[in-house]
Amino acid sequence: MKIYNLLEFLDISILSPAQRAYLNDYENNSMRIEMLKDFRQVVKNIDNLEDIFKVRDIIDKISLYHFLIQSGLLSTTMSYKYTVDDLKEIMFLNKFDFSLVLFRGKGCCRNISILTKKLLTLKGITNDVIVTEGFHKDKGHMFNYIKENDYEFFADLTPKTISLLSGDGHIAKAFYSEEATKEKKYPLYIFDNSNARYYEAKPLSKEKQQELITRYKNNISLYKDNISIFLDFYKENYPYYQLINKNYDKMFSNLY
Q1: DSSP 8-class letter at 214
Q2: Closest CA to 58 of 233, 198, 219, 175
Q3: pLDDT tens digits for 16-41?
Q4: Which of 20, 67, 189, 244 is close enough to 2 for a disulfide, judged by CB 3.0 to 4.6 Å?
């Protein structure tokens, strides 16, 4: 079984003694502690949004997170640009830090899927990051495996319109659509020695697939109709985004 690891292509031996010393105390770094404190405040404000919109189950949460990311409401630029270039990712030790580049308004599938995993994990929802192939001109791609109550599926929050997929062993199949000319299938691989038992997921019925798609669309319409609430959310969070970016930049410069 293929396993993908973000650190497998890094040669730690090329680091300077100063960089190695910095890494040894990375988890206790004061700038990182401050950065995570500001991130927790952002999460608290996301929780407030969930209360306002009565977000209760998994599709509501996924809809909200997707709207926040794609609308740029989690960045200082108030925009989101998909790119794999010049992300200045801190690629050591704690994979969660990959996701924090999103607060500067750009990123790619690994940043979004890891942030989604963090948010869902904080809610106590079974989920993990899964790797696939066949997206974006056959390049590797990452999205989320999710399990809550009777719903077990995959969600890709990277595109402008969310992609929802049903599991079938080591294959994910795009949700049924009358407009689709052929069934889309994608192989699934373990990410970073995950224990996720995604391959045991039972395919969702067409009825449940349609239910999730409809609820997602309704949620997005609701959010757009109440954009003033999200603008208040953005104003509240903007100072935390700035602080996160400031500390992240300092840490990046110390490592590289």
Answers
A1: H
A2: 219
A3: 777 677 667 777 888 889 999 999 99
A4: 189
Question: Is the pLDDT at 14 greater than 70, yes or no?
Answer: no
- The rounded distance, in Å, linking the Cα atoms of 66 and 216 is 10
Q: What is the pTM of this model?
A: 0.89
pLDDT tens digits, 168-178: 888 899 997 75
CA distances to 113, 115, 118, 195 from 128, in Å: 9, 11, 9, 9
CA angle 22, 27, 32 (to 5 degrees): 90
Please write the tens of the pLDDT for every residue from 112-129. Answer: 999 999 999 999 999 999
Q: Which tokens sit at 178? A: 């009358």
